[in-house]
Amino acid sequence: MSGIGPARSRALSEAAISTVGDLLHHLPFRYEDRRQRHAIAAITGPGKHLLQGRLEGLKPVRIRRRRLSLVRGWLEDESGRMPVIWFNRPYLTSQVDASREYSLYGEVRPRGSAFELVNPTVESVEDEMESGIVPIYPAIANLGPTLTRSLVRQALGRCELGREDPLPAELRRRHGLPEL
Fold it and tell me: Quick count: other Cβ atoms within 10 Å of Cβ 73?
Protein backbone atom coordinates (compact mmCIF):
# COMPACT_ATOMS: atom_id res chain seq x y z
CA MET A 1 0.00 0.00 0.00
CA SER A 2 1.10 3.54 -0.69
CA GLY A 3 2.55 5.43 2.27
CA ILE A 4 3.96 2.42 4.13
CA GLY A 5 7.73 2.24 4.26
CA PRO A 6 9.95 0.27 6.64
CA ALA A 7 9.36 2.54 9.69
CA ARG A 8 5.57 2.56 9.32
CA SER A 9 5.58 -1.17 8.62
CA ARG A 10 7.44 -1.72 11.92
CA ALA A 11 4.99 0.55 13.79
CA LEU A 12 2.02 -1.38 12.36
CA SER A 13 3.66 -4.70 13.20
CA GLU A 14 4.35 -3.61 16.80
CA ALA A 15 0.64 -2.74 17.09
CA ALA A 16 -0.26 -6.29 15.90
CA ILE A 17 -1.41 -5.06 12.48
CA SER A 18 0.22 -7.37 9.95
CA THR A 19 -2.51 -7.85 7.35
CA VAL A 20 -5.13 -5.77 5.59
CA GLY A 21 -7.72 -7.64 7.66
CA ASP A 22 -5.98 -6.54 10.88
CA LEU A 23 -6.07 -2.94 9.66
CA LEU A 24 -9.75 -3.13 8.75
CA HIS A 25 -10.56 -4.51 12.20
CA HIS A 26 -8.83 -1.50 13.81
CA LEU A 27 -12.16 0.28 14.25
CA PRO A 28 -12.84 4.00 14.73
CA PHE A 29 -13.59 5.09 18.29
CA ARG A 30 -15.79 7.99 17.16
CA TYR A 31 -17.07 9.85 14.12
CA GLU A 32 -17.01 13.57 13.31
CA ASP A 33 -19.81 15.24 11.39
CA ARG A 34 -18.09 17.41 8.78
CA ARG A 35 -21.06 17.72 6.44
CA GLN A 36 -21.76 21.42 6.93
CA ARG A 37 -19.28 24.25 6.39
CA HIS A 38 -19.97 27.38 8.48
CA ALA A 39 -19.20 31.04 7.89
CA ILE A 40 -17.42 32.66 10.83
CA ALA A 41 -20.25 35.15 11.33
CA ALA A 42 -22.76 32.27 11.52
CA ILE A 43 -21.10 30.78 14.64
CA THR A 44 -23.43 31.54 17.53
CA GLY A 45 -22.21 29.10 20.16
CA PRO A 46 -19.53 26.63 21.14
CA GLY A 47 -19.16 23.26 19.43
CA LYS A 48 -17.31 21.50 16.62
CA HIS A 49 -17.35 23.38 13.34
CA LEU A 50 -15.92 23.14 9.82
CA LEU A 51 -14.71 26.55 8.64
CA GLN A 52 -12.88 27.77 5.57
CA GLY A 53 -10.75 30.84 4.97
CA ARG A 54 -7.27 32.33 5.00
CA LEU A 55 -4.93 31.91 7.96
CA GLU A 56 -3.18 35.13 8.93
CA GLY A 57 -0.73 36.36 11.52
CA LEU A 58 0.42 32.94 12.75
CA LYS A 59 2.95 33.41 15.53
CA PRO A 60 4.61 30.86 17.79
CA VAL A 61 4.29 31.43 21.54
CA ARG A 62 6.65 29.55 23.84
CA ILE A 63 5.54 28.77 27.38
CA ARG A 64 8.63 27.66 29.28
CA ARG A 65 7.13 26.36 32.51
CA ARG A 66 5.11 23.60 30.90
CA ARG A 67 7.26 22.86 27.86
CA LEU A 68 4.25 23.73 25.80
CA SER A 69 4.33 25.63 22.57
CA LEU A 70 1.41 27.55 21.15
CA VAL A 71 0.69 28.97 17.74
CA ARG A 72 -1.81 31.80 17.59
CA GLY A 73 -3.32 33.40 14.54
CA TRP A 74 -6.52 34.37 12.76
CA LEU A 75 -8.89 32.62 10.40
CA GLU A 76 -10.60 35.07 8.06
CA ASP A 77 -13.45 34.51 5.62
CA GLU A 78 -15.82 36.86 3.78
CA SER A 79 -18.03 37.16 6.88
CA GLY A 80 -15.47 37.87 9.58
CA ARG A 81 -12.43 36.89 11.57
CA MET A 82 -11.87 34.41 14.40
CA PRO A 83 -8.79 33.79 16.57
CA VAL A 84 -7.24 30.31 16.28
CA ILE A 85 -4.86 28.54 18.66
CA TRP A 86 -2.91 25.30 18.26
CA PHE A 87 -0.99 23.41 20.92
CA ASN A 88 2.43 21.87 20.22
CA ARG A 89 2.37 22.47 16.45
CA PRO A 90 5.15 25.03 15.94
CA TYR A 91 5.74 23.78 12.38
CA LEU A 92 2.43 25.34 11.25
CA THR A 93 4.01 28.78 10.99
CA SER A 94 6.29 27.58 8.20
CA GLN A 95 3.71 25.40 6.42
CA VAL A 96 0.86 27.89 6.06
CA ASP A 97 0.73 30.24 3.08
CA ALA A 98 -1.36 33.37 3.77
CA SER A 99 -2.46 33.55 0.12
CA ARG A 100 -4.13 30.10 0.19
CA GLU A 101 -7.52 29.01 1.53
CA TYR A 102 -7.69 26.36 4.25
CA SER A 103 -10.38 24.15 5.72
CA LEU A 104 -10.26 23.88 9.50
CA TYR A 105 -12.26 21.54 11.70
CA GLY A 106 -12.24 21.84 15.45
CA GLU A 107 -13.75 23.04 18.70
CA VAL A 108 -15.05 26.59 18.88
CA ARG A 109 -14.97 27.88 22.47
CA PRO A 110 -15.92 31.17 24.10
CA ARG A 111 -13.07 33.65 24.52
CA GLY A 112 -14.14 36.82 26.21
CA SER A 113 -17.17 38.14 24.35
CA ALA A 114 -16.27 36.28 21.13
CA PHE A 115 -15.20 32.77 20.10
CA GLU A 116 -11.88 31.04 19.42
CA LEU A 117 -11.13 27.96 17.29
CA VAL A 118 -9.01 25.59 19.39
CA ASN A 119 -6.49 23.08 17.98
CA PRO A 120 -8.28 22.44 14.67
CA THR A 121 -7.15 20.08 11.92
CA VAL A 122 -5.94 22.08 8.92
CA GLU A 123 -5.89 21.15 5.25
CA SER A 124 -5.53 23.36 2.22
CA VAL A 125 -8.69 23.69 0.17
CA GLU A 126 -6.80 22.24 -2.83
CA ASP A 127 -6.19 19.04 -0.80
CA GLU A 128 -9.93 18.96 0.02
CA MET A 129 -10.45 18.02 3.65
CA GLU A 130 -12.46 14.87 4.06
CA SER A 131 -16.09 15.77 4.53
CA GLY A 132 -19.21 13.89 5.54
CA ILE A 133 -19.22 11.58 8.52
CA VAL A 134 -15.51 11.06 9.15
CA PRO A 135 -14.18 8.10 11.17
CA ILE A 136 -11.58 8.93 13.83
CA TYR A 137 -9.25 6.03 14.54
CA PRO A 138 -7.17 5.44 17.65
CA ALA A 139 -3.49 6.13 17.05
CA ILE A 140 -1.35 3.20 15.96
CA ALA A 141 2.05 3.73 17.61
CA ASN A 142 3.21 7.08 16.17
CA LEU A 143 0.84 6.97 13.18
CA GLY A 144 -1.91 9.54 13.56
CA PRO A 145 -5.63 9.16 12.86
CA THR A 146 -5.41 10.92 9.47
CA LEU A 147 -2.81 8.47 8.17
CA THR A 148 -4.75 5.53 9.60
CA ARG A 149 -7.90 6.78 7.85
CA SER A 150 -5.97 7.04 4.58
CA LEU A 151 -4.61 3.49 4.93
CA VAL A 152 -8.06 2.10 5.73
CA ARG A 153 -9.53 3.93 2.71
CA GLN A 154 -6.82 2.40 0.49
CA ALA A 155 -7.44 -1.07 1.92
CA LEU A 156 -11.19 -0.80 1.41
CA GLY A 157 -10.62 0.22 -2.21
CA ARG A 158 -8.67 -2.99 -2.80
CA CYS A 159 -10.98 -5.40 -0.99
CA GLU A 160 -12.96 -8.11 -2.68
CA LEU A 161 -16.46 -7.54 -1.41
CA GLY A 162 -17.87 -10.77 -2.86
CA ARG A 163 -16.53 -12.88 0.02
CA GLU A 164 -19.08 -14.85 2.02
CA ASP A 165 -20.02 -13.32 5.36
CA PRO A 166 -18.95 -15.49 8.34
CA LEU A 167 -22.27 -14.85 10.13
CA PRO A 168 -25.37 -16.63 8.82
CA ALA A 169 -27.97 -14.34 7.23
CA GLU A 170 -30.63 -15.38 9.80
CA LEU A 171 -28.40 -14.41 12.73
CA ARG A 172 -27.58 -11.03 11.15
CA ARG A 173 -31.28 -10.38 10.48
CA ARG A 174 -32.39 -11.40 14.00
CA HIS A 175 -29.86 -9.07 15.65
CA GLY A 176 -30.05 -6.26 13.08
CA LEU A 177 -26.41 -6.65 12.09
CA PRO A 178 -24.97 -5.40 8.79
CA GLU A 179 -23.06 -7.64 6.40
CA LEU A 180 -19.32 -7.78 6.93
Answer: 20
Q: What angle do CA 56, 70, 83 make, to 5 degrees?
A: 40
For residue range 74-102, list pLDDT tens digits in order.
999 999 999 999 998 888 999 998 889 99
Mapped onto helix, strand or coil, the DSSP state of residue 135 is strand
| pTM, full prediction | 0.74
Asked if 95 and 77 count as a contact pair (C-beta separation under 8 A), the reply is: no
Tell me the one-letter amino acid at 22: D
Rounded distance between C-alpha atoms, residue 145 and residue 139, angstroms? 6
End-to-end C-alpha distance for the chain, whole angstroms:
22
Q: What angle do CA 51, 53, 56 make, to 5 degrees?
A: 120
